[in-house]
Structure formats: structure tokens, C-alpha cells
Amino acid sequence: MKILVLNCGSSSIKYQLIDMNDDGRLLAKGIVERIGLKDGELKHKPDGKDDFSIVQNIPNHTIGIDLILSALMDSVHGVISNKNEIDAVGHRVAHGGENFSSSIIIDDSVIADIERVSELAPLHNPANLKGIFSMKKLLPEVPQVAVFDTSFHQTMPAYSYMYAIPYEYYEKFKVRRYGFHGTSHKYVAMKSCEHLNIDFNNSKIITCHLGNGASITAIKNGQSIDTSMGLTPVEGLMMGTRSGDLDLGALLYIAQKENFNFEQMNNLINKQSGLVGISGLSSDMRDLHKASEEGNDRAKLALDMFCYRVRKYIGAYTAAMGGVDLIVMTGGIGENDWIVRQEVCKDFDYLGLKFDANFNKGVRCVTTILSKPESKVKLIIMPTNEEFVIANDTYSLVTDK
Question: What's the structural domain count of the chain?
Fold first, then answer.
């Protein structure tokens, strides 16, 4: 069964075509960028064939997906002969609110529910819906599945997900912690347990998805019991351009002093803060490491703040679960940045983690155990594969129909 996985953003579409009947083999992947802007581009990477790209105006998502289908069927660079070989489509949907605790086959009622919670993810859900509507138009007979970033975290208890504000705002507007990166946290936790022969359903795991967007999740006996992101992806860790945890009084103080409106404050915490806000230089760890080595104090401060906050969340979630068996590093930073891993994990002897600093040095983007053999707590790098989770959920739902 060939499954097309789509991750639609406001002006982009990431895609993969995966053959689930061939052990989840990746047939092709790519991205459509600059949708609605001048000189849109499709970058297509087929397995075993030459990559290619197309530059043209791509006014909307439907035309973008039509380009993807054409690339997949191309006589030279394609991997299927016609679009009828696509058996199902899996969509990444950012926010499912409280409506969806698992992935689901899409019908009109599901679309209506996704639309209703779109105000909780105004930058993401409307774009995800564009992909769904486009596929309904282009491949109307093919089943579609929604896989939600938030669904894995629906097992959190109320004392974990509620905010200490008047309860009426939960009743009226469903203001609570939802969490994100759920597909990644679930995937890397399960794969790490499989790799280490740990019982996923009888273990205490902390997964660290560290990238430009970053979050940490506490997984106890196979269920998410707490996660760092909240109602929106702003809460929690310091990120590339997002503030993470912040005293709301400080936010109000800045707004008053600068006479900022809502849009300006939203821009401040989402796009001007985090690593770029502290360093004044970049949201990219590679730039900050280079600048820090050259003596840039603010770049060093940004790095120190990031590592400290990751370390603090790991400690907090260890306390929340009454211990930890396994810590997982994933995401662009977690998989590739050995310096960050070292700074985060170097002082965890008290947890029973014996970190192998020598083995960690230089390791990038490959499954690697970073704890010493005698370590009570295991530490592992596990590359994430959210697209495979989406394809697997889609396969399971479609074949169970």
C-alpha cells in the first residue's frame, strides 16, 4: 500500500510517498515552497533516481499538490506510473483540541471539527485543511487520514494540562495545555524502547525534541503525562525565535512601556525572542556556536540559557514521574549538536545517568546510545520520523475499515 504523506504549511507543502507493503520504504520525498509568491519551487527527491526541481508560479495548494503528483508520475524522475497507485493520503494536522485523542479517517464531520479548533492554531490548521481540500478535489476516491500533533498528549491528567486561571476560560474557550510534536515524541520513545529492549508500557521516558521548535515530554507507562508546550507552541523551552516560559507580568509591562498592540506582542514572543532575541544574531545553533567560540558573549548566553532550560525540564519531569529509565534526544539539535547534548547531560550523575562524553563527541543524526554500559538511566539519540508515524497510522486505519 502506497501512502502519500502531506505536511502543509501556509506557503509550503512537505511530502513523502511511502510503500507500507515494503517495510515502509521511502519512494520519494520533497517540498513545494513559496506558494502564492513569485517563483514558487518544487524540489523532488526520488529514491534511486536523480533529484530535480521546477520553478514556476504556484498560486495555491491545489496546484502545488498537482505538481507533486506530476513529479511522482514523471517518466524520468517518477516512482509510480499513475495516481491510482496512491492508496491513501495521511495529513499532519497541528491541532485537534480535545476532539481527537487519536488519528482518524477524514470525513465532513472531521473537517468541521478541525475547522472549529483552527483558532487555537491559526498559522497551521487552515494550511492543513488546504491540503485536505486539495486532495478531495484531485483524488476524490482516495481515503484521507488526519494525524494530530496534539493527540498523543490527550492522556495528560487535568492537574497537568489545566492553567491556574479562572476555570470559566477552560469551559468557554478550552484554554489549557495541549502540547505539540506528539507524533515525534511517540515515535522516538517507541523506537528507543525497541532498540534497548525496554517495555514501552512499563517505563519512565523523557523525550527531548530539540530543534528550532523544541519541546520535552514525560511518558509514563506508554502515556504522555506532561509536555512543555501549551495551548500554543510558544510555551515551554526557549526556542529559535519563541520565548518559551515567560512571566506574564513582564509581558504586560513591556506592552505598557512600548505601547504595543496584540499583533506586536504576538510577533515579539513568536518571532523576535528565544535564541535570536538573546543573541541578537541568529536562531541557528551553528551560527551561535561559531560566534561564541569567537568571543561573542550574547551568543554564549543564548546557548547557556537553552541548555539550562532543557536540563531543568528533564529534572522536573523526573520528579513528576518518580524517576526516569530513558532519556531520548531527537530533532535537528538533539540529533546533531553534540555540544548541546554534552551541556544538557553532563551533571546527571545524581539521576543514575553516566554520560559517555567521549562517545558523544561528533555524533550526528544516527541512532546512538550515549550512556555508559553501567548507567542505570539510558540516554539515546533517536532520529525522528514523523512522516512514518503518519503513514503507519494511515495504513492501520485504512486497512481496518
Answer: 2
